[in-house]
Specification:
Helices cover 71% and strands 0% of the residues. The chain is mainly alpha-helical. The radius of gyration is 22 Å and the shape is rod-shaped.
């Protein structure tokens, strides 16, 4: 059960299309995560700066 046979990962005659599609999808998700974390960091920094300037 724990061993993956080579047939389980075989996509047959469409493998040339399926595996690159998986790769592009994974890269897209990774890019979205990195972009979201970067935007959140910049938003947090901007909020902190605004808070500091607001204090008397």
């Amino acid at each position: 059960m724990g061993v993956v046979s080579s047939g389980a990962l075989s996509a047959g005659k469409y493998a040339a299309f399926i595996w690159p599609a998986y790769g592009v999808s994974i890269l897209g998700f990774v890019w979205m995560i990195i972009d979201t974390l970067g935007r959140a960091r910049r938003w947090r920094q901007k909020a902190d700066r605004l808070e500091k300037t607001r204090e008397p």
